[in-house]
Amino acid sequence: MRPLALLAAGGEGHPSTNPLLRLTCHAVPPRILQTSAEPAALLPDRFQAWFAARGWSPRAHQLALLEKAREDASALLIAPTGAGKTLAGFLPTLVELSTDAADRKAGGRQSLVCTGRSVQRSGGLHTLYISPLKALAVDIARNLERPIAEMALPIKVETRTGDTPVSRRQRQRRYPPDVLLTTPEQLALLLSSDDAPFLFSSLKRIVLDELHALVTSKRGDLLSLGLARLWRLAPQMRAIGLSATVAEPDQLARFLVPQPDGREAAADIVIAGGAAPPVVEMLDTRERLPWAGHSARHALPEIYELIKANKTTLVFVNTRSQAEMLFQNLWSMNDDGLAIALHHGSLDVAQRRKVEDAMSAGRLRGVVCTSSLDLGVDWGDVDLVVNIGAPKGSSRLMQRIGRANHRLEEASRAVLVPANRFEVLECRVAIDAIAENAQDTPPLRLGALDVLSQHVLGCACGEPFFSDELYGEVRTAAPYANLSRQDFDDVVDFVASGGYALKTYERFARIKQDKEGRWRVANPKVRQSYRLNVGTIVEDDMLKVRLVRGRSTGSGSTGAIARGGRVLGEIEEYFIEGLTAGDTFVFGGEVVRYEALAEDQVYVSRANDKDPKVPSYMGGKFPLSTYLAERVRRLLDDGRAWGGLPEQVRDWLSLQKDVSRVPGVRELLVETFPRGNKQYLICYPFEGRLAHQTLGMLLTRRLERMRARPLGFVANEYAVAIWGLGDASFMIRDGRLDLNELFAPDMLGDDLEAWLAESALMKRTFRNCALISGLIERRFTDEDKSRRQVLFSTDLVYDVLRKHQADHVLLRAARADAATGLLDLRRLSDMLMRIQGRITHRELDHVSPLAVPVMLEIGRESVYGEAADELLAEAADELVKEAMG
Amino acid sequence: MTAGALVSGDVEHMRVSRVTISDVTFAADLSGALFWEEQRLLVVSDLHLEKGSSFATRGVLLPPYDTIATLDRLAAVISRHNPRIVIALGDSFHDRTAHERLSAEDRDAVAALQTGRDWIWISGNHDPMLPRDLGGTIADEVAIGPITFRHEPTGAPGEVAGHLHPKARVSARGRSMERRCFVSDGMRAVMPAFGAYAGGLSIRDAAFARIFPKNGFVAHLLGDRRVHAIAASRCY
C-alpha cells in the first residue's frame, strides 16, 4: 500500500534521456479534481493516528469514499494508478469492522453462517473483493495485512482462487473470513452452492477492482449476473467500483447498483485528482522510418539507449511474437550486460513470477512485455514506459503509461516508438488525445446470451428458481437491463433441453421443473459439470514446443524426428497450423525451424537463419480504436497539422498529395493501378484490421460476381489492397464497375450471410459460445476423460444447426459476438454508411506513396480469404510438379 | 505416389476425382461417397446416424438434426448417380440403440432411398448388431470382383474400408485448411466418414502407417467445389 507515501514531486529529478535522441515532448494538463473535501472526522482516532505515524494524510477521494459509506451509497472511484485506489476501496470496510469490533465482543453484530445444514451464529462475511487477476487478489491480501496488523484491527482477510486448497475452501464456507478476496469465476462458483444464502446474507460491501478492464468482456457479464444475485441475497450490500479513467463514467456507474425496471440507476461517482500529467514523447528516430512492418527494428539502438539511460524501463509490445523478437534483438546488442527480462502470457507461470519478483526487488533494468502487464501488481520503481508500435487507443495507452511510476505526484514518462509511417500518425494523434485527456474506452456491453446460459445453469445448481423471479433478478444487472422475456425464455429452454425446434430431448433435460414450477438440476452430474466448466475465458488450444535435432530434408514426416527433446514452452495451435515443415519462426528468443507436429507436441530444431521466414505477426489483440482512427483522418485532412510530424512523414504525405490524393475526413479514397501482370485496387477506410478483413472478404466476393477476377487481398489497420486479373481501372472508366455499388451497405446482407456460412472466424466465434454456454464441456471429470477421443468438432455442429435452426439462441449469441468481435461488423457497417456518396477514385499508372505500406504486406502478412479450393488446388499443383519433375 | 494410382478427371464438373484400386477405377465423390461406374455401386461409410441424440443421453445436448442432415446428403448423392447397389460400410448407427431413436420420418427417408435398389448394411464396431427392421441385407463384408468392402481396414490388397475417418491438413502461404479425405495407394483405400457429426483422424496418425506404405499414398481432399488429390507427404 505504498502509494500513500507523500513523495517529492518529480520531473527534474529523473535521469535524463539520451541527449542523442531528438524527442518531441508534450505535457498534459492536470485532471479535474472533483472530490468533496470532508474533514478527517470521518476517520476514527485509531486510523488518524496510524496515518500520522506513517507521516501520511488521507487523500480527498479516500475520505470521499468514507463519506459515501456513511451515506449508505454505492460509489465508483475513478482514479489514476498510484492514487491509493485500493486503500480507498477498503477504508470503509476497515473502519466499519474496527468500530464493529466492540459490538461484536458484546455479541451485538450477528449473522447466520452455515455449517453443513445447521445454522450457527458468528461474524459472517462483511466484504467481498473481486479482481480480474488472481495474482492481484493475493497481492492485495498481503498489502492489507500491514494496516490491519499495525492498527491491531480484529479483521480476518483471506483469498480464494483456483489455487486455494479444497480444505481451506470448505472451511471458508463454514467459517468465512471478514474479508474475502477472489475472482469473478470463484464468485460464480460460490453462488451456485447451497450455502450461498447463508454465506452472503451478512455481506455489507463488495469492492470491484480494475472495473474498467472487467466490464469490456464476457467476464464482466458473468460478474454483473453474480452481482444481481448478491443484491437479492444481501439487499443491504453496497458496492465500490475502482476504475481507471473511462469515456463514459455514468454508464460504468450503472454497473454497481441494481437497475430498477424501466429506468436507469447509477452509483455516485468520485473522481480523484492531483495526478501529475504524464510526459509523453514520440521517438523521432535518426534512422529511416520503415514503410511497413511492426518490428521497430530500425529503432533498436535507440530503445537500448533508453533502457540504459533509465533505472527501470517497461517496454510494451502488442503481441507475444513481437515480444520474443524484440527481446532477442535487445539481448544480442546488450554489450553492457543490462538485466533485461521477457514477460508474456505464454511463458511458464514460474518464469513469469521470477521476472515479477526480480522487478519488485529492483534488480531489472528493462522488461519486454505484452498486455500481460497491463494490469496488476504495483511495482513502484518503473521510471519509463516505452510503447512499441501503434497505441491502438488513447485510454489503453494512458493505462499503460500509468504503469510507470505509481507515485501520484510524479509525472509518468513514456516514449512511443512507431514501427512504420502510418504508426507515426497514430502515435501523433494519441499524444494529442492524451494531452486533452480524451478517453476512448468502449461503451458498456450488452449482456451475452451464452454467459446468461451459464448463469442460469449455475442458479439451478443452487436453490431452485422460478422463471419469473430469475428474469426480474437478471434484469437488475446493467448489461441485461433490456433483456427481452423471449430471449430469457429461450435461454432457459436451451439450458433445459437444448432449445431445439425438434422436441426430442425433453427426457435428457439438464434442468427440470417441479410441480410448483421451480427449476432445479436434473441430476448431480450436471452440477459437477457446471463446476468444472464455469468461466468465460476460452483459451486458444496450446501445443508444447520441443527442441529436437533437425533434418536436412523437410518432408513433413514425423518418422525421421527423434521424439522427446527439451520443452521450450507453448504455442497457439492456430499458428502452427499455418506452417509447413521447414518454415522458420521465432520462439523463446531464438529462430527455430518447424519440423513436425505429432499429437499435441510441436517439434522444432534450431535454425541458423537470422530472419525467420514466417513473421508470425498475427496482429495485436485490439484494432485501432474508432476514436483514434477519426483523429488520424482529421490529421491527414488538415495539411497545416502536418508540421507536428517528422520530416520523412511530411514528405511522404506531400508526395501522395501530388501524385494522387490525401483522403478527407469522411471520404473513402479508392486507387486503382497496374503492377507487374496484376491489377490493384486499394481503399483506405482507417477502420482497423478486423473490420478490414471482413471488408476485404466481402469485396472480393462482389468483385468476383462483377467478373473483375480478384485473386486475393491483404488488410492492415488503415487500408485494404485487392489484386486480380481484371483491369479495375478500365472497368470503372467503362461503367462496368460502379464503386458506389461495390461499397453499398447491402453487402452486409446476402453476401455476408453467404460468407458467414463458411467463415472460419465465425466458426471460432460459435465455438466460444458453445463452450461458454455449456453446450460443450471444456473440462471433464476423471471418469469422462477417457471419452475425449470421441469428441466432435463444433464446426460440424455449426453447419448443421445453421441449416436446420438458423435462429437458435447460440447462433444469435455468436452473431452478436461477430458484431463487435473478430469480424467487427458494426464498425464496418458504420463505415459503409459514412462513405456513401463520398467515394473518390484515382486511376494511377503505378503504386501511390500511401499504398506502399499495404502493398508491402502482400506476401508478408498471411493472405486472408477463405477460398478453400484455390488453396487446395495450389497444393495439388505442387503434386503435379513433383510428379512431372 | 504410386504410379498410376491417380489421375485427376473433370467428370461431373470436377465433383469427383478418380481413385484406382487393384485396377478398378472408382469416382471419389465430393460428398465423400465412392462410386463404381461399371457396377453402378455406391459406397458410403460411417454415417453415425443419431450421434447427436447419443451425446444427449449423456447430457451433451447437440442439435438433433444430424440424422436428417446426413440422410439429405445421402439422398442427393444417390439421386446424382442412381446406383443399382448401395453399401453402407459400417458404423451407420452411432450406438447399439441408435436405430430405436430414429424418428418415423427418418425411417421413411431410409426406406425411400432403398426403393428400386439393393442395399447392404455392413456391420461396424459402433453397430455390431444391425437392426432387422430397416430393410436391406446385413453383412460383415462384401467381395465383388477383386474388391473387398469391409468396415475396419486390414491393409489387404483390393480393400475398401472406412472406420478411421481420415482427414488431412494442407497449408500454403501461412494459411491452412483441414478437410475430410479419401486415402489410397492404388491397392487399397480408406473412405472419409459421411456422417454430419463424424469427426476425423489425421492421415499422419500411426493407424494409417500400418495400412499404407510410408508417404506412398495420396489424400483426396473434399474441397468446396471439387476433390483435390494431394500427396500425403504434402499433408499433415
Automatic annotation (TrEMBL), chain B:
SUPFAM superfamilies: Metallo-dependent phosphatases. It comes from the Bacteria. GO terms for molecular function: hydrolase activity. Gene3D superfamilies: 3.60.21.10. Residues 40-133 form the Calcineurin-like phosphoesterase domain. It holds the Pfam family Metallophos. This is Phosphoesterase. It comes from Bradyrhizobium forestalis. The lineage of its organism: Bacteria, Pseudomonadati, Pseudomonadota, Alphaproteobacteria, Hyphomicrobiales.
